[in-house]
Amino acid sequence: MGQSGDGTRLASLGWQAVAAVQNAGAGPAAGEVRSVIDRLLGATGEPMHAREIHRAVERDLGEEVPWSSIANCLRRNAAGDHGRFEKVGLGMYRRRENPSSGSVGDA
Questions:
Q1: Pick from 39, 36, 27: which is nearest to 67 by CA?
Q2: C-alpha–C-alpha distance, residues 73 and 76, integer Å
Q3: In terms of pTM, does the model score above 0.70?
Q4: Where are the domains of the chain?
Q5: Strand 92-95 vs strand 85-89: parallel, antiparallel, or unpaired?
Q6: I want to staple 84 with a disulfide (CB 3.0 to 4.6 A). Which of 26, 34, 76, 99 is the partner?
Q7: Helix (H) or strand (E) holding 73
């Protein structure tokens, strides 16, 4: 069956099934990664290196998480003076004492 046949078959499944097929193996949602990092940094109370955070997030979620997801989450949520996290050195992050009510980004 050609490509048009595959598209017709997928279309007949409905948009939810198509989304599930497209997102298979996409990894955890950005908000889920952020929540795990927040919980992890809150529990340790000490700065952690981004690579340590990456390994801990993968352990916690029980699946591989792209490095870019961790790096983007840390960068976006440590931006400015009101981010959820604080960059305290090269690759080192900690949970901000009094984060603002919102975060800068979900990823």
A1: 27
A2: 5
A3: no
A4: 27-95
A5: antiparallel
A6: 99
A7: helix 67-77
